Every structure is written in structure tokens, then in C-alpha cells.
Amino acid sequence: MSLDVTLQTDPGLISDDPITEARRQVEICNACRYCEGFCSVFPAITREKVFADGDITQLANLCHNCRGCYYACQYTEPNEWALNLPRALADARVDSWERLARPGGLARLFQRSGTAVAGALAVGFALMILAVTALPGSGEGFYAYLSHNAMVAIFLPAFLFPLLSIAVSIRRYWREVGGGRVTWGMIREAGASAARMKNLDGGQGQGCNFEKEDRFSNGRRHVHQAIMYGFLLCFASTSTATIMHYAFGMQAPYGFFSLPKLLGVSGGLLLVVGCIGMVMLKRKADPNLGAPARESGAAAFIWLLGFVGLTGLVLYAVRGTGLTGPLLAVHLGAVLAFFLLTPFSKMAHGFYRFTALVKDAGDRGVK
């Protein structure tokens, strides 16, 4: 196969700017079209002839970094065009998270120094909560160490702030990519795609090439599903406990076979298994096909989320012993750090990616 592409695919025009470089490579892909069936990115590319900055931002967030296109491409290095679309879109994707996050600057700091930032915050918050738990308490279970009112006072603002920050960021994203009116059909289509991790199935259901180069594997799809559903189960556990407390006057602690505990333990197990699996897969993967300059932020997110799940499970196991107070402080410190870092960590990518799927559904004519 040969391409009659000379102007904007001149190898001399390779750029350090993430949007410009991603545009150069996308234009070559649009001329080639060999990878049309790989994922949602390539049909989206073929719908355009000219790519504005917002188009590149949309494609970057629609990309799931499965890397199949790289191993199928004949224009990667040592070819003079030096295509590496997974990395180009990864750089543009992280750039969009940093630009669009509010308050500005915090996302850039976390992406470059995520491990240090997450660790410092978790330790600081744990010490703060440990000091609070040392005060005389009242109530049963964990409330004997930290009252219900104190938990609400600490965690309600920490929960609402990320939601507000992400809402502002997603609104800015929607404007940048030229999003229009949203319908329930578009949301359903995006939800079904996200629930199945459709864009990690390699286009034919055989999986992607993330950790096994030119060999297909569904490993990354499965660990993503474990992390996503684990987090949703933990959120459902907290929501259920809140409804039981305020609507029905059923206060904690709850027994193991109660709905909050069953949801929480199941979710914690999935989180831990998923995060361990993701760490193992990333160790096998080629870092040069992602965004290596921001790897600290990605690693910190996985470790912090897995630590939250693990400490939650251990905390339940040691309940009623002398370890309860200190471990409660450690667990809640990690949870608080996780909440406050959500708009600036890779946790935000779920919101951006879902929004990109909604926009893509609209572009495909879903009503």
C-alpha cells in the first residue's frame, strides 16, 4: 500500500506540540484507513476531512489505548513518517485533562508527580483523622472513633468539590469538541459501550494488544471491568447506607449480610483484584506507546485506588480490635485523598471518555 500524502505528512513536520503531532498522524491514518475496524476512533477519523483542535481532543479521549493499530501499522519507525498513534493520542488526551481541569495547574502537578502528591495527601489526612479519633467519641462501630456528624462534615465537601470541578471540566470539553444537543439515545449507546468495554475488544472480540504486543488478549478489558464495577459497587454500598440511615432510621454498624456490607465487600475485592491486575499488565506493556512523561500520575491513581479497597477490606476484618482506630484513620485518609484528587487524576478519564462516547454516538446519528 502506498499513500500520495506529502504536505502535512512530511516527516520534517513532526511536532512537539501534542495536538499538532496527533493531527499529523491522524491525517496519515485518514489517508491509509487500514485500521478502520479496530475501534471507534478510526470510523470517527473517516468522518472528517479537516481536523480542528477540538476534533483531535475528541479522538484522543475516544481512544482506549489498546495499541492494536500500532502493531498493524506499516508506517511506524523506522519508516520516515514514524507513526505512533497510541502515544500521540495519549499525549493529546492527557494534555486535554490538564488544560480543561479546574482549578488549573493541579492536574499538571499530579500527572507529573502523582505518587508524591497522593502519598503526601493520604498520610497528612490520615494523621489529621487519627488526631480526631483520639478525642472521646460516642456511638457504635466506627462511630465510636469518629462520629457520624464528623464524617459528614469532613467527607461531604470532599465529595461535592470533585463533582463540581469535573462538571466544569466536562462542560469545557463539550464546548471544545463542538458537542450539541444530548439525547437519551446517545447516553444509552455510550453507557452500553462503556459497560461492555467495547473499545477494548480489538474490533472482533479477540481483545487488544496492550500487554502482548502483536498477540491479542482480553486481560486489560477484564481488569478495567473489575475496577469499574468494583468502584460502582463501593459507591452503591455508601449510597445504600446513606438511604438506610436517613430514610429508614437504620444506623450503622450493619451486619455482614446487610446490603451495604455485601456491596462494599464485593466492590472492595474487585477493586483490589483489578488494580493488582492493572499493575501487572502495565509492567508488561511498552511505556513508549502511552504517555511516559505522565506515568507517575497514572501509577499513583492505580495504587491509591487499590489501597482504598484493600484498607477497607482489612478494616472490616479487624473491626472491634485495637487496630480499628489507627486503620480507620489510614483508610479514611486514603479515601479523602482519592476524592480530592479525582478531578486531576486518571479517575477523571472515565468522565471524559464517557462524554467522548456520547459525542461519538451523536456523530453516528444515534437519536
Automatic annotation (TrEMBL):
Does this UniProt record's set of keywords contain Transmembrane? yes
The residues that cross the membrane are: 116-136, 142-166, 226-248, 254-279, 300-318, 324-344
Q: Does the keyword Transmembrane helix apply?
A: yes
Protein origin, superkingdom: Bacteria
UniProt keyword list: Membrane, Transmembrane, Transmembrane helix
The name this protein goes by in its record = Tricarballylate utilization 4Fe-4S protein TcuB
What is the organism field in this record? Answer: Ponticoccus litoralis
